[in-house]
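forwarding from the other thread:

> can someone predict this with zinc ion?

sure thing
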Amino acid sequence: MFEGVAGHARVTEMLIREARRPANSYLFVGASSIGKATVATEFARVLLCPDSDDHAEDCRSCRRVWSGNHPDLIEVGLEGRQSLGVEQARNIVQTATMIPVESEIKVFLVPEAGMLTEQAANVLLKTLEEPTSSTIFLLVAESEMDLPSTVGSRCRTIHMGRVPSDLIERHLLGLGVDETRAAALALVSGGRPGVAIGLITDTEIDAFRKNWLNLPTRLSERPGEAAMLATEVEGWVAPLASRAVSDVDLTKDERQREERRTAAALMESGLEILATWYADAAAIQYGAPLRNMDLPLADLTAISPKRAVRNSELILEAIADINANLRRHLLLTNLFTQLASG
Ligand SMILES: [Zn+2]
């Protein structure tokens, strides 16, 4: 069960127990590209399977979920729209009243539940609250805050975290990726299997990591130079993000949104890689084990361990602001100036 999922063992174990007596609606929340929709789809497959997924060979129902054409798994996507509005909500409500085609239940999967409008939410509430026993809703969003609270409060919330890098590595090895590459992808993805998988064939992965690890020796206290570095860094992230979003079925809007999310994820991974440089600079002087084995020792010991610890903390503190804020360029510039100042 849940074989195609990278990590999330605690969540999948819980869902296997849930499947025996499922609630009427679930909300899967967590960072982008960590596998929320993948886990939700696998949960739908288990819910729909006539053998309760208790079979060694794939059954017809499970195969139809995997190939995306199970008649009782209804995916409600944006399909080019900016939001999920009243019209989609009415369709859901109406479809929910119909009996399942070949399973005991019908499952609605809403991968972009954060795009539900307030009005659409109001239309849906009654269905979520007094669902027919044969309908289960699986909503997916980055945060509970992204959807109307009236909807969120009616769902059982499943919190999903980032996936440890060794598990992403193992998953990539299972997909036939070679060891060196799997390790590099796991590092760059920052705990997001979706990003790692999107970049499997990308040639710039090593360069991305090395660029971030070269930054500390290039930083300057002069704001003008820090600003130029910030621009350069943004230039590492954007093209990689657009290549990572490889799904050809996306509309232009969906692609742009996915690229923005992936860019934010990669910026965060990059900053975390940068933080490991400073953590290593402190570690080598305190005799602790290093995270990166390929850094010039002379560079690492050129900074005092105290400052290295401080810088590592500064970066980790800045990550949330940089991703949440529209003034990302300015925040990056400030961070780089601070890192360079003694
Ligand atoms: Zn099955």
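The mean pLDDT is 90. thats all i got for now
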